[in-house]
């Protein structure tokens, strides 16, 4: 046995740094840092990329201090259920604290990726001023900023390569923000403005595109008319990833042929998205790119099945398909026959509140895909009916699934043929798919399914549960099993205090737990917080105004968010959030 | 093991769409949320005076079209009460075809009408007609000068051999009159009055 790790000093630090540079995964670098003090020191000085899955898990200053040479940072804020309006808008996730610390400690920062955070225009201005070599800004599902902030980025980031705005809520108060890119600016590689509501000056954009020869990704927003889109795209035949604007207009033969020739000019196009409100009129104009596409996002295209089918079945090399349920079972059967390389499928509901006549998209479509697409590993599927038999078949067909998110739209829906709960079906999924990392449940489910999940889902990292289970046993099965569970989000389930307290220490092995409309009492939260000092137990309640201290132990907690942290309770909680 | 019970599930099996259940969920959700004392004000399904249906029961069908329409509306409104379900992003809710139809209805359902042989087209507002009978009368009036009946007589057919067809949302040519009026006006994009000889291909009751 080697004594004392003296061998670490046998090589100069630079050698170890070079060795560590081959470790891409954070988990590996973290492991290296625990070996000895020397390696801890060398590793922390050479780490270039940092991922912070929960912005409140560590204090920004501490992160910046520990890794002084970071060039790329990714930070996430609000819990996932914020996407569905379950988290109060003022809950937190503000980016200022992080941006200020980074401006101070990481002047050489080149890449910043923020998800579900509140980013102000001041933040964007600070980013624009502080990092001389700033190259990549990615904002996903963020809010709090406007196009004025974007103007600051455009004006000051001389070496910007990527501006990726994905599904943000952006206030439009600076109509000409694009014109803030200086004439000398030519470094753009990727521009995604799909989420912007307002009009963008097309001629300015055209100039920008013309002077950026390395542009590979261009995703435009809904507002641009089709003729303008065509003249824009004509300037960049080298594009690999295109997101169109609105894809409908009255039929004009010249526009049709211009669109056709523009798309025929794309020799390298791999990814297509946008296509808002596409009608049958213009879609055939772009058939020429189908064969080369590996990624197709039609989830805003409200075209009906026959046209949709015609388009998608030409895309023989598709690896990722996002589409509306308007594709129907017949469409998916065609996809299963044509798209043999499909890896990821997402089917979104066109009519989630059920006011229109029902669409013929059922479990049959998904079963067909699972049978025909051997490389399928990721599924998100909204439908209105399911059977255990179908789930069994899917599990049997596709043991290579890594992500399975099924949303049966009506809560508590049983197997529509047998009227049984869907326990057997989901159990089959977790038992067969040994590499399953993400699972979302729906339909009528008892505690039995949780027993299977706890026992079999050894690689599961994220679990979403809604309107399921009979008792605390359900939650207990999950928390006492699922070795690799990181994120658990639960709503409207009869899970309560006992399971939570019995598995308190499990919570420190996870990133976070969200529970809303369950049966947890304030007393249990108090006990938990006492027992686990390195957890923040946040009780969220928008109804009452009285302070937490005055409520009794048996008070039912409306929403609960628990996460591990080394930063202690946060100082920016709004009135509706109490850290117990 | 469950895997051994797998049934063969070839894609050639006939598509079956099962009944879409509307069980009464609200009561259960209210209980789960805790004692708020809001039970008296919650929306319920089923006839007044009856207790809420059990988990797997179909919804009670009240008599009369009006009541079931009301109930459907209440069901939809009740569904919308569940915050954050189904789990879709909020901006996605604004891009549904249903919403678009409503907007069009407010503005007037103007469609172009062409008639074979007529030198120019007309435009009519489908919203002003109550049904197919009124539509035919309206078109008859509008194209009187070209004389629908005379046109077909000149072609050698009997007086009423013309067909009113329409182009629907998918771009297909359909015979007017097959579907319920409401469905027709929401899917009709333009009208075309065809010569009887051309219309023979389309199956018709008229």
Q: Percent helix among the residues of chain B?
A: 25-40%
Oligomer: heterodimer
Strands of the widest sheet of chain B, in order across it, are 2-1-5-3-4
> pLDDT below 50 for ≥5 consecutive residues: which ranges of chain A?
none
Continuous helix count of chain A:
19
Plain-language structure description:
The complex is a heterodimer of chains A (580) and B (206). By secondary structure, chain A is an alpha/beta fold. Chain A contains 19 helices and 23 strands. Chain A has a 21-stranded mixed β-sheet, with helices on one face. In chain A, strands 5-7 form a two-stranded parallel sheet. In chain A, helix 6 packs parallel to helix 7 and helix 8 runs parallel beside helix 9. The longest helix of chain A is centred in the middle third of the chain and has 12 residues. The mean pLDDT of chain A is 93. With 206 residues, chain B is of the alpha+beta class. Chain B is built from seven helices and five strands, in the order H-H-H-E-E-H-H-E-E-H-E-H. A five-stranded mixed β-sheet of chain B has the order 2-1-5-3-4. The radius of gyration of chain B is 25 Å and the shape is elongated. The N terminus of chain B is likely disordered.
